[in-house]
Known about the structure:
Elements: H1 42-50, H2 62-76, H3 81-105, H4 115-129, H5 134-155, H6 160-164, H7 169-173, H8 178-200, H9 206-228, H10 233-254, H11 260-278, H12 285-310, H13 315-345, H14 353-369, H15 393-411, H16 419-434
Helix pairs in contact: 1-3, 2-3, 2-4, 3-4, 4-5, 4-8, 5-8, 8-9, 9-10, 10-11, 10-12, 11-12, 12-13, 12-14, 13-14, 14-15
Amino acid sequence: MADQQKRRPGGLKRTHGATASTAEKAESSATPQTKQSRIVTEAEKESSQMSIPLELPEGADDLEELRHIYDAAFATLKTDSEHATVLFRGVIHECDRLLRLQAEQTPPSTPGLPPAFYWIYGMALFCLSELTEDQDALGFLELAEEHFNHGLELIDSASPSTRAKYDEVGERLQLTDIQSRLTLACAKTRISQARILATQDMVKSAKTRRWLMSAAVEGFNKLIDHARQQGSEEMRLAGIPWLIQKMELIQSYAELLRDQAEVDDLLQPGVEQLKKVLSDNSDNPKLWNSLGLSYWSLARFYLDQAEDVEDDEEKENDTKHQELLEKAKPYLAQCFEALQKSEQLFADGNPELSLLLLTLGEVSINLGNCLEDGEDREEEDQEPEQRLCGLTQTELYQRAVDSFKKARQVGGDDYMLPEHFEVFLQDWEQEMHDD
């Protein structure tokens, strides 16, 4: 066999990143009498007001108009980020105006703005945070969190009719009540804040990040538990997407971390939660995929460290490298088994299958790298070749090849593998030809 390092896409990061949709990622709320966004300049206000060509329903009031502006901004987000930025700033400007009107004109006895208003306000800030630099984004996210929290505080005092008013976005998000949407958005906003803080100063932000992640996980768990406690099977199953989404965000955040205890504290409870839910839903491929990706995140913590010392010629670092691979090995094996199960359950045409196969191929390569090189073994004077997950090193590399080829097939004629996987396939095929 040729040098296995040629076949190893070392230190690869998953290319898909966070998977949650922007529309569902965040929420925020501020005290209307005292806090406004403070982010829209006079020039931006004029630009926002001049750049929102909307067909509003006849007789629409201010809040209905606000919702239509937000929907227009969201619809533009993926196709024209520059125009979406203008529209979201227009939403924020309108929200500030409505808050000023309420503070100046509303008697204390008159009902205030409904919780759905604060969902829209916070979501506009959250979406704007994704379109700006990290430093500005953090400020937007903090304000968004305040607005979401204020919306949640209003839930107890708002009448049922006020809660439901202007709440048509609920159907789009498949959440049955405004409280759930505010809870979800607040949780995602906190995770986004933690991500930015981790990239700015990992050490100084440790305490704040832990609080943000703990609060975010608690928010997700409230949604999951609420769904699980409902009587109907449909509502019980509704909690599964929130569990998967929670784990996706945690996995993405864990990629930034360098502290083993912090990684374990975030991922291990989620792993146990997934296993518990799988006990009653063993035919759900997305749950198996989420479990596999959680094990993959745990394994990659050690693989990334192993890569850092791999090229060092110091003997002690070679020993350290092997120790790190040994720690990664059980997580890799569990990941391999879970992803294989997910692959078996997914329909061939499922759009998620290609990405799963890429991860399965990379996991197979790393499992192979954990085994001693099996080339030139002589059966008569060598012990049986080592195996992981029942496969030899060569068989694991072949499993990776099969996964990448299947991913290309599932993806269709225009699908292209990431470059490092194409290189792996070319090296493998060249080796097979040489043999």
